[in-house]
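Hi U.,

Before I forget, here's the chain from the pilot set. I'm dumping it here mostly so it's searchable later in email.
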Amino acid sequence: MGLRAKFNLVMLVAFLIGLALAGSLSYYMVYENARRQVLNEAAVMNGQASAIGAYTASEIAPLLAPQFSRRFLPQSVPAWAAQTNFRMLQQQFPDYSFRAVVLNPTNPADLPAPWQAEIIDTLKREPGRAELVTERDTPTGRILSVSSPIVIKDAACLVCHSTPGAAPASMVDLYGPNNGFNWKLNEVLGAQIVSVPMRVPFERANQTFVTVMAGLAAVFLVMMVLLNVTLQTVIIRPVRRISAGANEVSMGKMDAPEVVVRGKDEIASLAASFNRMRRSLANALKMLGE
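Structure:
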């Protein structure tokens, strides 16, 4: 195996090892960044839902309270307002969703889907947990969900959810006496779930990863070409000239021209040493001939 082949083999092995390390690090960084982007979108949606709920509770509910004796208006419920707002948003962004689901809801429309019920069960088993991040596969791609527990911390909120007799008659007339009652203070009743698609950020992450790896491969190819040209010019060609000169001397051709010395590097020093050895050998042969 020639010097060039050995050099290229060592460089190829080093490149593959470096590419594997760089690829692993790049993959982690771009996909972790994509996941943080999805979590940030979920945090924005969660904050918007909380803001809608707070506005409804402080501004809308007091205006509608005088009508409760005649009929119950769900527009006064913060969770209803937030979900209605996001249903309108879903018309433009169908993969994004917000749900405030309860195992025993007043409105049957707030019953959880099976995967949402599993999230609520997890939050009930871990009552001190403030947030739960989950992922699931759907026909449109992978979805990340950020869930926070729904807990009644204000005893005044139990007026509508303790017993049918204590609740507003208009609410019982609308939803019936069997829904949304017997809630307990500080008990995890459900979950506020924000779902954000991971498809687009992860597709961008994949494109970024491929671009980075292609760039590394291109840099390696350019480096290999430059190194091979340098190797050929600085090492292989001078060594071949020295080897050819040594071959002629070994065959007794003492009148062969000396190797041209170029530069002051190690190869030039080797050529100069070879020339001195050749002259010394020629002088020795002359002395023996005399």
